[in-house]
Every structure is written in C-alpha cells, then in structure tokens.
Amino acid sequence: MQLMRKKMLSLFLALTTVLSLSLSACSEAPVMPEPQISKSAPQKPTVGENYYGSVNFNYLSRGQIPYGESGYGLFDNTRYEMEQYVKDLIDRCVNSQPVSGSFEEMVKEMYLQYTNTDARNEAGVDTLLYLAGMIEQCNTTDELVGVMGYLYQNCGVSSFFRPDVLPNFLDSSTNTLYLMNMNTLGNMKENFTRTDAGPESMGQYVKDTLTFIKVEPEEAKQRAKNVVRLINEIMLATMDSANMMNMTKHLKLYNKTEVQSIFSNINADNMLQAFGFGTIEQCIVYDEGQAAKINELLTQEHIREIKDYLMTCIMFEYSDVLPPAYLKDLVSLSDSTKDIDDSAKRYIANILEMEVGILYGREICNDQLISTVSTMVSQIQDSCRDLIRHCDRLSEDSKNKYLQKIDHMVVKLGYDHAWTAPFTITPAADGGTFIENVMAIKRGRKQKLIASIQQTPDRNAWEMSAIEVNATYYPMSNTFEIPAVMMSKAFINPADNEYYNLGKLGYVIGHEMSHGFDSNGFQFDDYGNYKPEWIGAEDREKYRQLMDRVITYYDNFKLLDIYNIKGEQTLSENLADLSSVQCLLHITDDPDNLRHLLEGIAAQWASLTVVSNLVMELDGEIHSPGEARTNAVVSCMDAFYKVYDIKETDKMYLAPENRIKVW
Questions:
Q1: Over the stretch 265-304, which tens digit does the pLDDT of each residue have?
Q2: Burial, 301: exposed, middle or buried (Cβ in 10 Å; 0-12, 13-18, 19+)?
Q3: β-strands 282-285, 175-180: how paired?
Q4: Which of 72, 258, 322, 561 is at 20 to 30 A from 340, Cα to Cα?
Q5: Are 171 and 196 in contact (CB under 8 A)?
Q6: Which residue has the higher pLDDT, 612 or 394?
Q7: How far is CA 242 from the centre of its chain?
Q8: Contact residues for 553 (Cβ-Cβ < 8 A; gap 6+)
Q9: Closest CA to 507 of 573, 461, 463
C-alpha cells in the first residue's frame, strides 16, 4: 500500500506497500451511498473479456462515488468502517474511569481538552506566536537553520531538513542518520509541477499563515507567491516517483566533510548539532539533487521566503489544534464546519495513532484470528519456497540464499505489543493545555527517534499503527507488517470461503513478502544488508531480463483502451503483484479452490474512480490501478486458463510464451 513514516519512510525504507492509496488513520470518509441501478445498465462482460469487470460487475455498474471524492473502493470502505469503530472506542474511553497512565487515560484526557473550546480559546496561541517571533528575529541563514533544529526537536516540525533514523544499509545491526526529502507541505512533485492546483492551494495556505501572524493581506499575498516560487524551484530539482523507488539512487554514505560540501552555504556541523545529531560521523542524503538546490537557495537573498516557509511548516503541523476563536476567515488552515466531537475523535486517532491503534488491535486481534492469519502466512511462504526450489532462472546458490531470506524474514501481525508512549500528558486539572500536550507528544517522539541513533535496530518493533490501512515491507530489516485493520472482515471474513479470504488478505501478505525479491529488495541479503552482488552475476542478468519484460508488458497494458501504465515507474510493485499471485495459486490445484482464490484477488481491487484521477495516478503512482492488478496479473497465470477455459479468441488471453512468471 502506499502509501509515507507518515512519513517519507513509506517511499524508501518501506518499499512499499501493497495496496491502498495513502490513507490516514482517521481522516473524514463519506458513507458509501446505496447503489442505484441505472436504467441503461451496461452488459456484464464475460470472464474472457474482462475478468476484473466480470467479478466486480455489480459493484462497478451500480455503485456511486461519494460526493467530493475522486474514487471509492474496498480500501476506502475499510478505512471508513475502522473510523467508525475507533470513534466508538474513543467514546468508551471517555465514558470510563481508566487506569492511571494507561492509553485509555491518554485518549480520554486529550479528547476532553480538545472539546473544551473555552479553555483552548483562553489558552490562546502565544506558543505559536513565540515560535514565529524566534523565526523573525533571525538575521542569517545559519541562525534560521538553528531554529529549524529547535522546531524539529521540540515541536516535531520538519522543514528543509527532515532527519530520520533507520538501519544502516551496509550493516543492518546499526542505525544511521538519513536526511530525507524536505517538507513539501503535503505536495508531491508530479502534482505540484504539472498542475495549477498544488501551487494555488499552497499559496492560499501560506497567505492564511501570514495573515494569522498579522501580516497585511496584500503583503501576505505577494509573500505567499514568493514562497511558492521557492518551493517550485526545489520541486523541479527533486527526484520523480520512479527514481524515488530506486534504491541505488539513495544508498550512499557521506562523511561530515562531504555533507559540508553539499550544504556549503551553511555550517553543516552546526546544522547536525541543532537537530540533535552532532555526534554522527556519516549519514545518507536521500536526494542529493534536492539537497543541492536547497543549499543554493539558503542565502540572505531568500531569507524572507525561508522565514515564511518555516512559519508555514509550523502551521502545517499545528493548524488542527488552533483554538476555534482564531480560525475566523482562515479556511485553508482548518475546516470550521466540522462537528467538534467528530473533529476531536479524528484528531486523537491521528496524534495518538500508535496508542489508539494498540487499543483497536487488542479488541480486533483475538487468538483465533492471529492463528488463522499466521497459518496463511506459512502457506504462502511454503508455496514461495517450493517455487524458488524449482525456479529455472536461479542457480542452486541463489535458491539457497532466497530460501534463507524467507527463513529470516520477520512477519509482524496486528500491533506492537511492546510499545510504550515516549511522552506524558499533563491533565487539565494540573494546568495542562491542549496545545502544550500536543507539543509534548511530538517532542517525545522526536527525542525517542534521536536517541535511537545509538541503539541496535529492533526487528520486532513496529513502524506502522494498527489502524493504518496499508501494509509495508522494510528491505533494510527484512521484515513486514500487517496491521490489525488489514485483518478486518473486509479482508478475512469467517463467513467467506477460506480460499476467497486467501485471495484477498493473502494477496496483501504475498505482496509484502515478495517485495523482498523485487527490483530493489533482491539487492538486500537475508538480514537487510545492501549487497547488490550477493546474487551471482549470471542470475542478476537473468533477473534484469525478466524486469525488462515486465516493464514492456505493463507499458503496453491499456486502461479504457486509451491510457498506458508506466512500466518502469511501477516495476517493483508489479513484480510483487505477479509473485504474490503466483505463490497463491501454487498453494492448491483444486479447481473450486482456485476459482475462489481468483475471485478474492479480483474482488479486493473493486474500485470506482473518475477518469481525471486515473490519469493523475498513472502519472505519479508507483502502483498500477486495481484493474491492472487483477487482469494484467491473472492473464499471466496458467491456473486462470484452466479454471475458466480461456480461449485464444478471448481478450484476456496471453500466449504461454508471453506469460510472465517471476518464479
């Protein structure tokens, strides 16, 4: 899924993901309206014409996209149902007498403080204005970088520099500093540089931020334009999505001298010190092209724009906690039309995502469910092992290494049982205010991250929240996570056929496991160390030839008979899809079981989308659209032809020599 360490982690460490569009833990989701049958309903396609369309015909022909949405499918509905569950969970916390120091108590206290608008209005925004004053007092870019470090450590605000701590790609038993891509205020390069919507919305956001700190409207408007120009320059120098996913573009260690040469316009040692990483001797610069452009712009000439950008970064992080009395006419900063109870619950599920996720996981993940999913994982891994043993393109040495990689893979299901909150919440009765507690939460998490630079990576620790509608593989630890919400009834329903469930949740599991062997993952050994040559040269060449076939195959796959997928941009995800389904269909040879499997595979991708949204996805998304994740994949599987008796005259038909097998 897709999906970001809410984080750019999802683009890099999280090789990602399997499935959904990036879906936040508790963002507002509309109720899916009852399907309305059209008087001129289209004719159901045959399996041979369009397998995806045939299996999902009722949904696709009768469903409607909710007003204001660009698409709606299984993952959106799963998110919506989870959100309703979490809202009820929060209600139960609020109406209980929780144990002191428990996650339930944290939820209750933060909810009560959020909904006490009188207290929030009285507390005011002095804290944010103090931070704005810190920025305004800076006279040099080095001073501004120092404030950036203060904001990162103490307020959880990222800006031009977004330090993260991840396993060392050369030695996964140690941690390393990664200077990730800058905070682009929620914008991706493709959308920002190729459409007007991104720059326009950012301009309005910057303008409202400056108005909030009492800049006159006309001046705020002009200064906002200058900030957008600055960000656009940096965006143009940033890697595109396809290169973001190419590990070889990022995995280079820089010593302090080299870091200083990249950031020649500032004192790099002081920068690292300001962000809490003064003791490190080397780090990774995630996107050197972007870093070079940031350095070029870190000059006195641009100090005004940098200050305004930095204040906007603060507002981007804290706009949801502004007291209601301060939001008048600042519509881009917060939606004042939202119900206070609903808004509070969504925000609590976001700011306390790990803690709320654990409460959710404790209720969802009973022993029987975990046992059933664990069995499913074992089935898929055993199937993959058998395919590897009989894979013609692999030497015996490569087979043994791949088998070891599966053996050493850590699979995490449900939620993090060992999680402890790295912060404390001060009750209102003891003088705590909502905004100060939000800062305490963000500060605690950053301090935990900074401290981890000195620690050995814990392969059993979780990166994801249990309420994140996604799943993720991490190449630098050879682990993957299936959060509790992905084990909800939408993906594994006891009332459904077990092979149908295997086609749905099993696709997710197999996809994440297969990322360990995709175009990026195959370059990491069984413990997550980057060793491009650990697989022999001949086998690497055979795999590159296979990857070229996959790229060409998806380049030529059309949607709506018009639009092409970008094969190179989606390569790693397409490989994971093809491998996952091959593993699933290798589990059984019973025709009825195979039919249920294939129907489950197709059903989970049922989704309605507007054409303009599809075009945008094809431009920048690293996943193929749902129709391709069904039809392009099953057309390569021999079992599909046997089960449905697909003929050469069928549109879904591929000649045997053109069917791509990962294994």
A1: 999 999 999 999 999 999 999 999 999 999 999 999 999 9
A2: exposed
A3: parallel
A4: 72
A5: no
A6: 394
A7: 15
A8: 567, 632, 658, 660
A9: 573
Q: Are the C-beta atoms of 183 and 159 separated by less than 8 Å?
A: yes
Q: Which regions of 244-333 does DSSP assign to beta strands (E)?
A: 253-255, 282-285
| Closest among 507, 475, 533, 528 to 19, alpha carbons compared | 507
Question: Please, which residues have CB within 8 angstroms of residue 339's CB and are 6 or more apart in sequence?
Answer: none
Neighbouring CB atoms inside 10 A of 338's CB total 13
**Residue pair 179/12 in contact by the 8 Å Cβ criterion:** no
**Residue-by-residue DSSP string for 79-130:** HHHHHHHHHHHHHHHHTS-PPTTSHHHHHHHHHHHHH-HHHHHHHTTHHHHH
Choose among 448, 515, 452: nearest CA to 482.
Answer: 515
Residue reference for tokens 């059309």: 558
Task: Count CB atoms within 10 A of the CB of residue 211.
Answer: 18
| Strand arrangement, sheet containing 175-180 | 162-167, 175-180, 282-285, 253-255
Coil/strand/helix, residue 13: coil
Quick one: pLDDT band at residue 38, thresholds 50, 70, 90? Answer: very low
Angstrom CA distances, 545 to 343, 390, 531, 548, stand at 51, 19, 20, 5
Q: Which is nearest to 633 in space by CA: 604, 609, 591, 613?
A: 604
Nearest 10 degrees: Cα torsion 208, 213, 216, 219: -70
Contact present, 483 and 464 (Cβ < 8 Å): yes
User: What pLDDT was estimated at residue 26?
Assistant: 37
Q: pLDDT tens digits, residue range 186-204?
A: 888 877 887 788 899 999 9
Q: What are phi and psi of 480, to 5 degrees?
A: -145, 160
Cβ neighbour number for residue 59 with a 10 Å cutoff:
16
Is the pLDDT score of 584 beyond 60? yes
- Every domain of the chain and the residues it spans: 73-124+340-364, 126-321, 369-411+454-663
CATH of domain 126-321: 1.10.1380.10
**Sequential DSSP letters for 628-663:** HHHHHHHTT-HHHHHHHT--TTSTT---GGG-----
What distance separates the 2 farthest-apart alpha carbons in the chain?
Answer: 75
Q: How far apart are CA 375 and CA 377, in angstroms?
A: 5
Can you tell me the distance from the alpha carbon of 524 to that of 517, in angstroms, rounded to the nearest whole number?
A: 9
Other C-beta atoms closer than 10 Å to the C-beta of 133 total 11
Q: Quick one: which of 152, 153, 165 has its CA closest to 453? A: 165
The tokens describing 121, both together, are: 């209005």
Residue corresponding to tokens 């059933």: 372
| CATH topology (fold) of 369-411+454-663 | Collagenase (Catalytic Domain) (3.40.390)
CA distance 228 to 145: 20
Rounded distance, CA 552 to CA 464, Å?
A: 34
Reduce the DSSP state of residue 368 to 3 states and report it: helix
Structure tokens at 183: 């905070």
Confidence (pTM) = 0.91
Q: Are 513 and 383 in contact (CB under 8 A)?
A: no
Length of the chain: 663
* C-alpha to C-alpha distance for 417 and 598, rounded to whole angstroms: 34
Measure the CA–CA gap between 585 and 640, rounded to whole angstroms: 9
Beta-carbon contacts of 596 under 8 Å, excluding residues fewer than 6 positions away, are 497, 498, 499, 500, 502, 503
